Every structure is written in structure tokens, then in C-alpha cells.
Amino acid sequence: MPDLTQLVKAYDVRGVVPDQWDETLAELFGAAFVTVTDASRIVIGHDMRPSSPGLSQAFGRGAASRGADVVRIGLCSTDELYYASGALGIPGAMFTASHNPAQYNGIKMCRAGATPVGQDTGLDDIRRLTEEWAVSGPPATDATPGGGTDQDVLADYSAHLRGLVDLTGIRPLKVVVDAGNGMSGHTVPTVLDGLPLDVVPMYFELDGTFPNHEANPLDPKNITDLQAAVREAGADLGLAFDGDADRCFVVDERGEPVKPSAITALVASRELARNGGTGTIIHNLITSWSVPEIVKEAGGIPVRTRVGHSFIKGEMARTGAIFGGEHSAHYYFRDFWNADTGMLAALHVLAALGEQDRPLSELVAAYDRYASSGEINSTVEDQAGRAAAVRAAFDGRDGVTFDDLDGLTVTGPDWWFNLRPSNTEPLLRLNVEARDDAGVDRLRDEVLAIVRA
């Protein structure tokens, strides 16, 4: 029996095509997905990777073989697939490997209403069935094979987003958008159409081989083109999306990156105002202290969670939260079925900037109160041992506390750091925040000296 544990991750399926998986496996995944979700109708979308159309078609064949009707929405962003799942009220599957290199592909799956399918909510069952059926084939079924229809939801998706943020009265803005040859090149022209925006497009051609740069805007080297273009064009801001366009990264008019925590705080303030100054806001434990501070000041209730979209979405459902944000530039909205959409966050930034006269750097300064290190990775074989050594080094210091919500978080009077092991690699990930850069540098160097000893 094949072992698919390296292919089926905590939140999705992801691996190299055809080395780790192919259309034969995709068809079995489709059959298993329908079996586990007990769906009579599903929606499937895919990104621009060369392998995506074939894999998605195979998944659809597997789904139909178990009696499900298949709605094919074709080329789309991941949040467009979530929109379709939410609006149609049916489970969905998105074929994408997000920001991974071209030889990768994957499946992000959800139940009706864009509810995530993760390791503990059906993905492990899908993996086990797929492993069994790869040997024996799916069992016979009395179900009548499902049919298939093609449906374009881009206009409806765009209208839904535009209905959540009023951009009609903003001042004219020049915005550079780097699509990274990913799916925002498909969605941005429709979503931003008719607004008082001078859009300067970069790499809008859909190309799953990523000829210009990786479609991962959190890596600084992948936004250098955008930064230069913003400065050269004298633009008001720049937006960069990842490959499947569910994450959005922002640079200001100087070409300087705006921290995702600042965007989280900005959007949280706007969503609280839109909801009468009350509501719960979810933030993961790597986001800046600025986020819960600003949420409280705006009348909201901040709730701290582990890193990862399944935890965020779970807490949003449990608390009825109106918005959630992560340090990785994932932004989640109650009015988008608790799913993440970088495009809606981008619309909020455009609205906030366009509703007043200051440049973006001045606007976001109020939401960015602390210095931070960003995420620093260290290759470590004994992750638990190194983390224990760090804990021991800080244990007993005045005013220092520990918590283990997700990895090790150590908090002092005017600083904190988090040390988390990677789930898939021998890495420890360090994030540090303090009052100023000097404080960050001191703490970072002390912790890394122990981690890398």
C-alpha cells in the first residue's frame, strides 16, 4: 500500500508532479473526497500551473464516479474557489501549490460554506481511503455517475467583494500590482474595474513556470521588482499576491514593505467600525502586540490563536469573530465564510488610503508600534532540546513568563519571542518583537546563539 503521508500535509495535498502524485491519484482523491464529505455536488477550480487542468479534471472524474455532480469554475484564485463553495453551499477543491515552484501541485479542499478540510476534519480519512484504493480500486457503488457543468463565477466573486468595501468615494490612486504570473493576474482586472485607480500591472500573464520570480511575496527577494516599480512610477502603493492569490503583501509609496501585522490592525479597525465598534478579532501568536492593543482601543475583543488557517478558521467559527489576521499575510473575514482572501484585504487598504490625504507610510505608522525581526529559520536536528535550552536560559529572569500554545513563547516586560518547530522540516522558526530595533537585535542574537550552539 502506498504511503501518502508526505503528500497529504496538515491542511492540504501538496507534492511534486508526477514524482509524488499524478492524475491517477487525483482521480482517487476525488472519489475519496466525495465519500468522506458525502457530497452530491462539488465545485472544482484550478490555478495556472501546467499540471492543474489535467489533475482537476481527473479529480472531477473520481468525484462523478461516486455520484457527485461537478461544477467546474476553471481558472480561479483560491479565494474565488472559497467564494464558489460559500455562495453555492457545496464542498470545493482548489488545485494549486500556492507559492511552491512549478513542478509542485496540490489540492486545497473545503466542505460546504468554505469550511476547511484539514488533518482532523476529514483530510486524514481522505488519505487513508486513497491509499487503500490505490491498491484495490474504489469499491463498487450503486450511485448514478454525476454530471458536469461549467460556470464562471469571477463577476459574482468580484461583486461580492466590492459589496463589502465602499471604494466609490476614494481619491484617485496609482497602484502597482505584481501578480507574479499567478492568479491575481486573472482576478485583479475584474475586481478593480471601474474604480478611480491607475493600475500599473506587473507579470499579469498567467504562467505556472514563474519566469520572473517565485510567487511568494513574503520572501524579500520576490518584491524587489515591485518596490522599484512603485518608486519609478511615483505610485501611492504596491500590492503583491502569491501564486493562488489568497495572500496579499503591501508596500508603501516609498517602496517599503508594510508589515502584515500593521495591515491586520488596520483592517481590524475598519471591520470593527463597520460592525458598530464591537466584535471579536482573531490574531495568531506571531502577530505584533500592536494588533490586540489596537483592537481593544477600537472596542473589539482580541483572541490569540496558534499559527495556521485551520486554527484561525476554527476560532472564528467558535467565537463568531468578524475578522482574523496572520503574520503570513493571510486575512480572514466573517462575511467571506470565515475564509482567507487577500483581495478583500487589499480593497480595505485602498479604501483606507483613498479616504484621506496622507501617504500610506504615515497612515500605517499608527498601526505599527514595535520593532520586529521577521521569521528567522535555523536548521536544528534536536528541535525539542534546543527549545528546552532556550527556556532554561530565560527561566528565573525578572518579569519573564512562558507559554506553550504554539511552540515556546517567552514574554518579558517590553519584548517577546516565539520559537516554533516546523512540522515538515528540521527547522526552528524564531520571531522577536521589542520596543526598538536595538532590543530586537539583542534578543535575536541571544536566542540564536543558543539555538545554533
TrEMBL record:
Its cofactor is Mg(2+). Keywords: Isomerase, Magnesium, Metal-binding, Phosphoprotein. Signal peptide: none annotated. The keyword ATP-binding does not apply. Residues 375-448 form the Alpha-D-phosphohexomutase C-terminal domain. Gene3D superfamilies: Alpha-D-Glucose-1,6-Bisphosphate, subunit A, domain 3 (3.40.120.10), Alpha-D-phosphohexomutase, C-terminal domain (3.30.310.50). Residues 6-131, 156-255, 262-370 form the Alpha-D-phosphohexomutase alpha/beta/alpha domain. Pfam families: PGM_PMM_I, PGM_PMM_II, PGM_PMM_III, PGM_PMM_IV. It comes from the Bacteria. The keyword Isomerase applies. Belongs to the phosphohexose mutase family. This is Phosphomannomutase/phosphoglucomutase. It comes from Streptantibioticus silvisoli.
